[in-house]
Amino acid sequence: MSERGHAIRPARFAQPEHTVIVGTGVAGATAALTLRNEGYRGRITLVGADPEAPYRRPPLSKEVLRGTVKSERIRLKPDAFWSENAIELRTGTSVTALDTDAATAALADGTVLGYRNLVLATGGSPRRLREAAGVPGVHHLRSLRSATALAAALAGRDPVTVIGAGLVGLEIAASARALGCDVSVLEAADRPMSRVLPAWLADPLNTLHWDRGVEIHTGVTVVRIEHHTRRGGYTVSASDGRTWTAATVVAAVGTVPETSLAEAAGLLVSDGIVVDEYGRTSASGVFAAGDAANLPDTLHGGRHRGEHWNEAMEQGAAVAKTIAGTLTPYPRLPWSWSDQHGVTIQVCGRPDLGTEHEVRGDPEARDASVVFRRLGRVVGVVAMNRPAEFRALRQLALAATQPSSTS
């Protein structure tokens, strides 16, 4: 039995030393890079439906939307790098089926790849609003292609309505405002970034956006999105009767893990592909990393599925080290960052679990760091415009994740 309580089949030895990585996002790309850095000499194939070579996604909601960076500048590596390091990069095609008994992956182009190890780094897709079903032209931001389309829409500097005041929604709002658009943000919760910030830290962020001309409306339940074919534009209606009109509507309400391939292959799936702390799935030789992976929270109990760049990158690296022969658990401390109107917000750990906190600086001025503790142990850190201090405090939080720590 595995550590999760279901059977793991014995390892196969019929296949040559070949690792197939499904997904060219940061989890998959990092897995490939780490394998080579760890001295892995087997064949590596990196497969992704995205037609672009691996690129950094954080700039999509910022520099790409504002037109301050060209697409080639966000590449993870120069195009020649992959072949120079014997990583077979196959973009613009997808894996359509897995046979975990035969250890093969079938591609949309008809190729069938045998593997010794396979990494599912399939990521996620934007969560779709039911109210947007059948409404043409509602934007979602996930890929370079979608960012390019949204950038073209924002270039007209017409009014924009963003649905969702999470990290991505607020970054889109800040970028649209920087371009000169009138921007309204609609959020169902009682505050922006409600999943990661307590109310007293979200308030200064809310004020920042209003001061820069972005209207954030909280407690909004969207019930209808209408597209006006003749005159153009949209009307978004709330359950309390309020309406917002805009030339562009963006839905930024989170992601859904891409698990269809894993499900069809019979892997254990529950809000993501279920893995143990080393990224191993319920099938021998098959791992998962990134937004699609649902992993155990070894610090606080339960399970966790991350949706942040850093988590995906660190998970990809950990899985690769395990495949290369060094059993490496996933990092135990998630962290993320956001840039909004020139203010950098960084978060690590689980601030929501803190029962006490220590503030340094002035949150109202967006120049502060906050350490959250529970029973004396550091469980999370938030910093605003204090990157150097955040790095030091993150190390403090990392130390607190060690079993012998008394921090």
From TrEMBL:
Instruction: Read off the InterPro entries from this record.
Output: FAD-oxidoreductase/Apoptosis, FAD/NAD-bd_sf, FAD/NAD-binding_dom, FAD/NAD-linked_Rdtase_dimer_sf, Reductase_C
Q: Which UniProt keywords apply?
A: FAD, Flavoprotein, Oxidoreductase
Q: Which domain of life is it from?
A: Bacteria
Instruction: Identify the Pfam families for this entry.
Output: Pyr_redox_2 (PF07992), Reductase_C (PF14759)
Keyword check for Hydrolase: no
**Where does the FAD/NAD(P)-binding domain lie?**
18-316
Q: Does the keyword Iron-sulfur apply?
A: no
Cofactor(s) this protein cannot do without? FAD
Reductase C-terminal domain: which residues? 335-404
Protein name according to UniProt: FAD-dependent oxidoreductase
